[in-house]
Design brief:
This protein is of the alpha/beta class and about 220 residues long. The protein contains ten helices and six strands; from the N terminus they run H-H-H-E-H-E-H-E-H-E-H-H-E-H-E-H. The strands form two sheets. A four-stranded parallel β-sheet has the order 4-3-5-6, with helices on both faces. Strands 1-2 form a two-stranded parallel sheet. The longest helix is centred in the last third of the chain and has 17 residues.
Length: about 220
């Protein structure tokens, strides 16, 4: 946003977890509590800042703010974007130019929360293809047919070994296609896929898409 000249604010220490892990594991009372609940607190902090647009880099946060918060507190007064949507728009308007090329052959993993749930498939791919000398490889299982990384729905919290094994299958799929880097637009996917490289015994860098963009424009 600095590189694109976008004026913005952050919640900083006033930002609480969106509550996604609690919701996915059935602990909604903590999220919905009218006095101390996460929903009420986060919405109040956004309202204090008087913003019209909220952007999140986490696929799980995007799912929670887009779907669950309106169920608990009604439709918010702000527009909500996943950061890949926001960056894609900035690139299209020539407000953001990617300067540094990707050093490796790159494959993209679709996060479940922004992919299957909201159809955000092309924005991340357009961003990757906007890098100079982009060498993009499409995964065999992609978009609506993409396979989960294994981390979502509270599964990694309860069954970490199984979650990392699921991630290793995704890593192996990328490796068999010749990818040298696996990229995703969800921090939790990146964490579990990174663990999956160790389970698979594969030397492959796993990176978060937004971080690659930041490096390219710096």
């Amino acid at each position: 946003m600095d590189a694109a000249g976008v004026e913005y604010d952050i919640l900083g220490k006033d930002e609480w977890c969106c509550g996604s892990p609690l919701i996915r594991t059935g602990q909604t009372d903590i999220v919905r509590d009218e006095v101390d609940g996460l929903v009420k607190h986060n919405l109040n902090e956004v309202e204090k800042r008087g913003v019209s647009t909220v952007v999140t880099a986490c696929a799980g946060c995007f799912m929670t703010l887009s779907h669950n918060y309106p169920l608990y507190a009604g439709k918010p007064d702000f527009k909500l974007f996943h950061l890949t949507q926001f960056i894609d728009d900035l690139i299209a308007k020539k407000k953001l130019v990617l300067k540094k090329p990707l050093p490796r052959k790159v494959a993209y993993h679709d996060p479940c929360h922004i992919g299957r749930h909201f159809g955000i498939f092309e924005e991340p791919r357009r961003i990757l293809k906007s890098f100079p000398k982009s060498s993009y490889i499409e995964m065999k299982h992609n978009r609506y047919d993409s396979q989960c990384c294994g981390a979502g729905g509270g599964y990694k919290i309860q069954f970490n070994d199984r979650a990392e094994y699921i991630a290793s299958l995704r890593v192996m799929e990328a490796k068999e296609l010749g990818a040298e880097m696996l990229v995703s637009a969800c921090p939790f996917c990146v964490t579990n896929l990174t663990a999956g490289t160790k389970v698979a015994g594969v030397k492959m860098e796993v990176a978060e898409l937004v971080s690659l963009v930041a490096e390219s424009v710096s």
